Amino acid sequence: MCGRFACYTPFAQLAALMRLPVAPRLPEQEPPPRYNVAPGTWITSLAMDGEGIPSFTSMWWGYRPHWAQAGAPEPINATVEKVATSRYFRGAFARHRCLVPADGWYEWLPGETGKQPYFLCREDRAPLWLAAIFSERDDGRPGLAILTEPARGCASEVHARMPLALDDGSLEPWLDPALTDRDVMRQTVRHLPAGAFEAWPVSTRVNRAGEEGRDLMQAVQAPG
Fold first, then answer.
1. Residue range 162-176, pLDDT digits in tens
2. Pick the catalytic residue: 28, 81, 98, 107?
3. Could you tell me which residues come within 8 angstroms of residue 186 by beta carbon, excluding any fewer than 6 positions away?
4. Any catalytic annotation for residue 2?
5. Catalytic residue list contains 7
6. How many CA atoms lie within 13 A of 186 on its CB side?
7. pLDDT at residue 224, as a whole number
8. How far apart are CA 147 and CA 164, in angstroms?
9. Contact 148, 162 (CB under 8 A)
10. Is 103 helix (H, G, I), strand (E, B) or coil?
11. How far apart are CA 81 and CA 138, in angstroms?
12. Is 121 strand, coil or helix?
């Protein structure tokens, strides 16, 4: 799954790194660096606006479509295996896809003394673009779920699943609302290679959602 991540690269820099035919619209106000982004909070994602321009916008990390019954699930993740066919997700997958910028994510490895958190990121430290879907909530604002896939590379040593991190050539088609054919999507959208990632153990301070600071990503000695 993907339950915590960090996002600290300035958004102007994120926009400059993207290979899109139209430059993304930046947030009206620069979001602060965050090193322990937790579900159930407002996060900044990239989606096409009403004018067809990719725009950074605030979305709730938790997906519950406005048409869902009261008390319906509010998942933070959607699996790549079911997102295109599940009634709960398929409409958003076809028409409302977005990208979540991240500099890395956290995952927990069970051990004899409890769960040890790890930070996972690209070996070259470049930002990640996590595939996500969104839908209008009952309050009229968008809520999203980050897609996950079976873990690969070093990520598989920590957890069975990982966020779907797209390569640079997949960003434009993923955001394109005109691309709705699932077979074309499979052929066009690709994840980063398994060898692109690195992982190391970090402090259990990250377990507490209110903790913040760059030191949360510092490597520590894993128990045992």
1. 999 999 999 999 999
2. 107
3. none
4. yes
5. no
6. 6
7. 64
8. 6
9. yes
10. coil
11. 27
12. strand
